[in-house]
Specification:
mainly alpha
Length: 301
Amino acid sequence: MTDHAARKVLARHGKSFYWASFFLGHVRADKAAQLYQFCRFVDDLADGDASDKAQRLARVKECLSGTRARGEKEVEAFLQLAEKNHIPIAAANELLGGMLADQNPARFDTDRELLRYCHAVAGTVGLMMCRLLDCRHPRADSFAIDLGVAMQLTNIARDVLEDAQMGRRYIPANWLDLNAAQSAPENWAEASDEMRRKIACATGQLLDLAETYYASAMIGIHLLPFRTRLSIAIALRVYRHIGSRLKARDCAWWRGRVMVSTLRKAGLSILSVGALLPRRVPIHRSELHHPLRGLAGVDSD
C-alpha cells in the first residue's frame, strides 16, 4: 500500500529524488520516501526557528541510540523502517550529529572539514538507501557514500547565497582569497564584484570536487540490483545537471538557485538507460575516503 504522506513530503521538498523514485517500483519507492521523510524531519528541525531545536535534535539522537525510550512519530517510523531493512543506526546517528553541528553556523577552514560534514549529512543517507534498495554487494557502500557526498557538494554550491543569509559558510576558508571580514558570510549579500568573483571561483571548486565523487558513484551504480540501477542513475544525472547549469552561468551564486526543468529531467532519464548495461566495477578509489576515516561505512585502511 502506497505511503501517500511520505510521497507527498518527497514530492514537495525533493523534486529530483521524487522524479527518480518513479523508476523504483512501488515498494522501494515507498521505502525511499519514508527515509526521505525522516531526513526532511530532522533537517527542518535543524533549520527551523524553534528555540529548543538543538534539544529536540539531541532527543532524536538519544532515541536512535536507545538511551531514550520514545520519540516523535517520525522517529518511531524511521526506527521501524531501520529494523525491517537492516539500516545501520550508526549512519543515522552521524546524520543527527551533522544536524547538531549546524546549530553553530558552519565556518569551515579546510576541505577535510567540508567532506566530513558532507558525509555526515548525505553520505550517511547513501549508506541507508543502499539497504532500502536491497543491495547486498559488500563494496557498494563506498560508492553510495560518494554519491551522497557529491550531491551535498552540489547542494552547497547551489545554496551559497541562502546559506550565507543564515550565517553559514561551507566553502573552506583556504579556498577563498578574502580577508577575515570578507570571509564572514553575513557580508556576502552586499559583496563587491571582486568578492563575488572570488566566491564564484570557490563555488566552481565545489562543483569540480563533486565531479570526482559523481564519477566514482556512477561506476558503483553497477553494483546495485538491476531493477534499482536506473532510478539511482537518474537521480545522479539530474543532481549533477544542477552543477552543470550553475557552471554554465559562471557560478553566479548571487542570482539564487538553479532549477532543472521537467523536460530536461526526461532527457536525462533517457540518457540514464545506459546504466542498465553490465559493467565490471573496479576497486573503489580509497583516496576519496582518506578525509572520511573513522566515519560510518568508511574503511579504516
